[in-house]
Amino acid sequence: MKVFVKLIGLNVISRDRYHEILEKTIMRLKDSTVNVRKNALKLLISVVCIYKIILPMVTTDKKFIPLNDVIRMNQQTKADLAELIESLSKK
C-alpha cells in the first residue's frame, strides 16, 4: 500500500489501473489490522486526489492542466479529506 501511495504521488501509474487499485484499497479498508486500514486510507486519499485532478482533464478536451492548478487542487482535496476524516473520527 505504501508503495502505491508513492507511485501515485509521482504520477507513474497509468490511469486505467486506478480503478483496480481503488477496488483493492476498499477491500483493505475492511481488514482487521489497524495498520493495514491506516495505509489503505492513505492510499484512498491519494487516489481521490488524483481522480479530482484528472477528472476535469478527461471531461474537457484539455490534454494538460497547468501545474499551478494541479497544486491548488491537490492541496484543496487534501484539506477537504482531512476535514472529513476529522469529522468521522469524532463520531
Give a verbal description of the structure.
The chain has 91 residues and is mostly helical. It has one domain (2-89). It is 75% helix and 0% strand. It contains four helices and no strands. Helix 1 packs parallel to helix 3 (34-59) and helix 3 runs antiparallel to helix 4 (67-89). The longest helix has 26 residues, at 34-59. The protein is globular. The mean pLDDT is 79.
Characteristic terms for this protein:
single chain, 91 residues, mainly alpha
In short:
By secondary structure, the protein is mostly helical.
Itemize the secondary structure elements and their pairings.
Layout: H1 2-9, H2 18-28, H3 34-59, H4 67-89
Helix pairs in contact: 1-3, 2-3, 3-4
| Residues in helix, % | over 70%
| Tally of DSSP β-strands | 0
Q: Please tally the helical runs, counting DSSP H or I stretches of 4 or more residues.
A: 4
The shape, in one word, is globular
Going by helix content, strand content and strand pairing, the class is: mainly alpha
Total of domains: 1
Strand content: under 5%
Order of helices and strands: HHHH
> Unreliable stretches, pLDDT < 50, 5 or more residues?
none
Q: What's the story with the biggest beta sheet?
A: none
Mean pLDDT score: 79
Q: How far is the first residue's CA from the last residue's CA?
A: 26 Å
Radius of gyration: 14 Å
